[in-house]
Amino acid sequence: MRLVLSITLSGPFMEQTGNPASAICAFSLADIDKVYKGSFKYQPESNSYWQEKPTSLDPRPGLCANDSMSLSEANLQFIADNPLMYETVQPLNGKPIFVLQQTELQHLELDRNLTEMVFYAASNTGKIYKLFYKDNKKTYVSSIYSATLDQDVIWSMKHHKGSVYVGTDTKVQQINVINCEQHRRVDFCVKDPHCAWINKTNLLPETERDLKCRDLAYIKDLNLLNEEEIYTHINYNLSEDTPYVDPPEKPKYVQVIKTTTDTIDLRWLAGYNGGYDQTFVFDYRIEKTSSWNTQEYNPDVSDKSIQTYQINELANGKLYEVRMCAKNWIGSSGYTSTISVSTASTGIHFILIIENQNILPLFNSKT
């Protein structure tokens, strides 16, 4: 199947808060061709609904003609009056193949050296995502590369052999995208079509047995590809053994449970972590100020469990705005709704402020 990939930066993929989001959609060339061979659409009046308009003109309006000067006036007028197709081209499986919150993807580059669908997506934060679209069903993140420590915008990107070349405002950089040795788990390894997992380390030279994930070219050079317990994306069941990975879910039921003169205690329910360990990010600022301060929390167990955290080093008796999100290796969730809460002027205040609900005082204790 021949596909067309496209990046979408707006519409339903923009969060209500206005934070950027990106979606990559795949379209079948057969579906595109079918729509362009279908009916056109038109409006009988400027305030009427769009209607279907078939045509029997020959040659069909919109098709390339050997001699455009020979086209009839009726054909040219039809094209001018009806430039839109009646049907729309739907993405494969009716949804994006990859969505990334709070990031703008700007460039796509296909790995043309593989028969599998592997492509690279460059972001406005200097990161490159190596993506594997398996069996026209699921997209796995094989690796993430940082093209620059300064998070420069990537303006151009080209893939050649085992590298991508990126251009920013300050430099051009080559990045190796075949680096299987970084993967320490079989489910991470086999999500990269360049790699294979060697479960029997005695198949390897003695000095190299600590690296089980290796480049497929290396495996082939050692004639190991048909050996038992050599796993690739072909013979390892990704659909069952590896969860679909993406950014974590947004934290739920965020509550303020206590404040002191310089702290705010929060409680929330963690969502699905996206297949990786997640970190919780807390943004806070004094009301009516512009810049956010940030603290992060890395719990030992964070998937679908109740969590608590104390934001500290705050000013006493001030009204703060607080919001939070979750992030993992892939990306970030959306932000929760902003909560307004005051630090205590003196003592400790035990309160309960629930996201999107009213303040419910429990009790107030002074020390």
Automatic annotation (TrEMBL):
<dbReference type="InterPro" id="IPR001627">
    <property type="entry name" value="Semap_dom"/>
</dbReference>
<dbReference type="InterPro" id="IPR036116">
    <property type="entry name" value="FN3_sf"/>
</dbReference>
<dbReference type="InterPro" id="IPR003961">
    <property type="entry name" value="FN3_dom"/>
</dbReference>
<dbReference type="Pfam" id="PF01403">
    <property type="entry name" value="Sema"/>
</dbReference>
<dbReference type="InterPro" id="IPR013783">
    <property type="entry name" value="Ig-like_fold"/>
</dbReference>
<dbReference type="GO" id="GO:0030215">
    <property type="term" value="F:semaphorin receptor binding"/>
</dbReference>
<comment type="similarity">
    <text>Belongs to the semaphorin family.</text>
</comment>
<dbReference type="InterPro" id="IPR027231">
    <property type="entry name" value="Semaphorin"/>
</dbReference>
<feature type="domain" description="Sema">
    <location>
        <begin position="1"/>
        <end position="177"/>
    </location>
</feature>
<dbReference type="GO" id="GO:0045499">
    <property type="term" value="F:chemorepellent activity"/>
</dbReference>
<dbReference type="InterPro" id="IPR015943">
    <property type="entry name" value="WD40/YVTN_repeat-like_dom_sf"/>
</dbReference>
<dbReference type="GO" id="GO:0071526">
    <property type="term" value="P:semaphorin-plexin signaling pathway"/>
</dbReference>
<dbReference type="GO" id="GO:0030335">
    <property type="term" value="P:positive regulation of cell migration"/>
</dbReference>
<feature type="domain" description="Fibronectin type-III">
    <location>
        <begin position="247"/>
        <end position="346"/>
    </location>
</feature>
<dbReference type="InterPro" id="IPR036352">
    <property type="entry name" value="Semap_dom_sf"/>
</dbReference>
<dbReference type="GO" id="GO:0007411">
    <property type="term" value="P:axon guidance"/>
</dbReference>
<protein>
    <recommendedName>
        <fullName>Fibronectin type-III domain-containing protein</fullName>
    </recommendedName>
</protein>
<dbReference type="GO" id="GO:0005886">
    <property type="term" value="C:plasma membrane"/>
</dbReference>
